[in-house]
Design brief:
The structure holds two protein chains of two kinds. Chain A is an alpha+beta fold. Chain A contains seven helices and twelve strands. Chain A is extended. In chain B, 69% of the residues lie in helices and 6% in strands. In chain B, α6 packs antiparallel against α7 and α7 packs antiparallel against α8. The radius of gyration of chain B is 19 Å and the shape is globular. The chains are: A alpha+beta, B mainly alpha. At the A-B interface, β5, β6, α5, α6 and α7 of A face β1, α3, α5, α8 and α9 of B. β5 of chain A pairs antiparallel with β5 of chain B, so a sheet runs across the interface.
Chain lengths: 251, 306
């Protein structure tokens, strides 16, 4: 609440143009053993010196983007009666998560040229069209990438979910799914008038495994031999203990 | 109660995993099977990536085999020299299997090969068990009927490199057991199973070992081959999920005790038929997944190219 008041005060301060000040409800997301997704609230205010200008209304777009990684998209075809992966397209770098929230339909509030420049809408942000192409037409593959990730809640577009109060305050809620990839997530906020971006704000949101999850994951990558031996010790101990307990119960 | 698995990178209900381990544990206690051949496909069904399911399945097999072998060691029902010969073949087979596994994973065909192997082996074993179970069930209904004397294959006696296996009362070439071990090792690495369900019939029908040492010797071999496979998966493709394994093992050891206690009280013939039906159902589900047109033809794999 104090933060919100501070933002309101900031909004009242004089400045040269309309600019955005913002914050997020979490500074960092920790993936623990009990992690089943997370809510992130991104809020902010518009700071302006002069009264709100005439003309097209102010619009806000908020995006949240996960770390990029390479993905191979494979297609099944029917061979000898069974479905087998036969064709594939590799994409060098595509975000593991990407969500867009806006005050209105992107088609109305965002100029297509501006979209290309800033890579705001999901297909452009995902940049699914890079990398070597192993097939004649990669379009069905990239469409599948978007479709599958949308179905998993990893890519999303929610138009009209950002509420702009009094032309000044806004908030966007993001629901992060449980199957998150670790890394630095990027928040972007765009202020738009007449389809043009008049100000943008960027911030980082680290997501990392914490506690036992972090220790185990790091061990499995940095010292796989020790990790494997740990798994075996666990299995042998459990097996021996079960047998011993059984004998104890019987006697 | 959702729990986030650090290696599989999915959140799964912990009680579901405990329950899954327990159900398979009950079966392993009842029938003396390791249960890997049921746990791994069940993990596919609940959405664990196949690579992780196979590697973690191996780890679970180590626990259930250790639990089982101790009782057999006490009864001196383990032919250790035979176990070591099988093990030599098993480690070589598992090594080859791991190489094939990683190669297939890079080619994007590992899911297919794992599923196909399961359909073939579960279908085969399920049918064998159903046949055996039906025969036993008929026998139990008509007591006093003629018992079928099993035909023994004696061609193994003509091969070189003969060795004496005292506990089994055999003097045979080491080549057949090494080959049996090798095949089981390959299956262990690719399917995440112990391989007892293949090795036990092979030991009885191909090697001619007496039934009383077969289970213990098979478990002995399975412990080391599965331990080797777990380590190899952990080192080469980092897909052993220790949290997942832990939950399955806890469920499994409790289930196994329940199963062992139940086995004295229930009718074995009918249970055997039930297990056969279960195994066939899992095989049929996997076969349908391969045969029916999938809802989504495309699938995503992390990492580029390959």
């Amino acid at each position: 609440m104090i933060r919100l008041l501070a933002l309101l005060l900031l909004a009242a301060l004089p400045a040269s143009a309309e600019t955005v000040v913002a914050g997020q409800s979490l500074d960092e997301i920790g993936i623990t053993a009990r992690f089943d997704g997370s809510e992130v609230l991104i809020y902010g205010a518009v700071r302006r010196d002069a009264p709100e200008p005439e003309g097209p209304p102010l619009e806000v777009i908020v995006t949240l983007e996960g770390p990029s990684g390479a993905v191979t998209i494979r297609k099944k075809t029917r061979e000898a009666g069974i479905w087998i992966n036969t064709e594939q397209v590799g994409v060098a770098a595509t975000p593991s998560y990407y969500a867009v929230a806006s005050t209105g339909p992107l088609a109305d509030i965002l100029d297509p040229a501006e979209d290309v420049r800033q890579r705001i809408s999901v297909p452009l942000a995902v940049r699914a069209f890079s990398g070597p192409l192993e097939v004649d037409d990669a379009r069905p593959f990239t469409e599948a990438l978007l479709r599958i990730r949308e179905a998993e809640g990893l890519y999303s577009l929610s138009e009209g979910t950002v509420r702009l109060v009094e032309g000044t305050l806004f908030r966007a809620d993001f629901r992060l799914p449980a199957n998150l990839v670790e890394g630095t997530y990027k928040t972007r906020i765009f202020l738009l008038r007449g389809g043009k971006v008049i100000d943008a704000y960027r911030a980082a949101l680290p997501v990392r495994k914490v506690g036992i999850e972090r220790i185990l994951f790091a061990l499995s990558r940095q010292n796989p031999l020790a990790y494997g031996l740990l798994s075996l010790v666990l299995a042998v101990t459990a097996g021996w203990a079960a047998s011993a307990a059984f004998r104890f119960l019987r006697s | 109660m959702l729990i986030y698995l650090p290696i599989a990178e999915v959140a799964v209900n912990a009680l579901l995993l405990l329950g899954l381990g327990a159900v398979v544990g009950v079966l392993s206690g009842l029938f003396g099977v390791g249960g890997g051949f049921l746990i791994t496909p069940l993990l596919f069904f609940i959405g664990i990536p196949p690579g992780v399911a196979v590697a973690t399945g191996s780890n679970q097999v180590v626990a259930s085999s250790v639990s089982g072998v101790l009782a057999h060691l006490k009864r001196k029902a383990v032919d250790i020299p035979m176990g070591l010969v099988l093990l030599a073949g098993g480690v070589a087979g598992a090594g080859a299997g791991i190489i094939a596994f990683n190669l297939l994973q890079a080619m994007g065909q590992i899911d297919l090969v794992v599923q196909l192997s399961y359909v073939v082996f579960l279908g085969f074993v399920g049918l064998l068990m159903a046949q055996e179970g039906l025969r036993a069930w008929h026998r139990s209904r008509r007591p006093g009927g003629p018992r079928v004397k099993r035909h023994q294959h004696h061609w193994v006696h003509n091969l070189p490199l003969k060795m004496k296996f005292r506990a089994s009362g055999l003097y045979i070439s080491v080549i057949p057991p090494v080959l049996v071990g090798f095949v089981v090792g390959v299956l262990a690495a690719i399917m995440g199973v112990g391989g007892g369900f293949i090795m036990v019939p092979a030991m009885i029908y191909i090697l001619g070992m007496p039934t009383k040492v077969v289970i213990g010797t098979s478990l002995f071999q399975v412990i080391f081959v599965s331990a080797f496979t777990t380590l190899a998966h952990a080192i080469t493709n980092q897909s052993v999920d220790v949290v997942l394994a832990f939950l399955l093992i806890i469920g499994g050891v409790i289930g196994a005790q329940v199963g062992t206690r139940l086995s004295g009280r229930l009718k074995a013939e009918e249970l055997r038929l039930l297990l056969a039906a279960l195994v066939l159902a899992v095989a049929a589900k996997l076969a349908l997944d391969l045969l029916l047109t999938p809802g989504e033809l495309f699938s995503l794999y992390p990492g580029g190219g390959g």
